[in-house]
Amino acid sequence: MMHMTFYWGRKVTILFDSWTTDSWLSYSLSLFACILCSVFYQYMEDRRLRLRLLSSLNAKNLSTTPQAATIDTPLLYPKLVAVAGWSKFAGAVLFGINSAIGYLLMLSIMSFNAGVFIAVVAGLAVGYLLFRSSDDQDLVVVDNPCACA
């Protein structure tokens, strides 16, 4: 039977019947996987927001505006972002990936294991610290703290 309140323990089923932990080693590795997925979620959200910012700039301003040069975008190529159709498609793909990861994180929390809850929240916080808490004054977008939005 599924737990309907938070509980502590090493026996937990996360997302699938086959992902069941029964030892401290498997439980620890599962928590580490939850942390990594949460950090990856924040990384992908940062890429999506930067793509949105770059696509809002037009191709002419992208090459002449000094603020565009300060945006760190190693996986986003400014010349490709200038193409409107490509940037909309890439934004939709990134949004879909982020939504899927966010909902999977939410469902893993719904295992009601306190360790999984703490691992996901800690991973989101670490990912935010690493990727989204920079001092970029140029990156002004509406920020949504919900992991599944």
TrEMBL record:
It comes from Ilex paraguariensis (yerba mate). This is Copper transport protein. The chain crosses the membrane at residues 24-44, 89-106, 112-131. It comes from the Eukaryota. Belongs to the copper transporter (Ctr) (TC 1.A.56) family. SLC31A subfamily. The keyword Ion transport applies. It is found in: Membrane. Keywords: Copper, Copper transport, Ion transport, Membrane, Transmembrane, Transmembrane helix, Transport. InterPro entries: Cop_transporter (IPR007274). GO terms for cellular component: membrane. Pfam families: Ctr. It is a multi-pass membrane protein. GO terms for molecular function: copper ion transmembrane transporter activity.
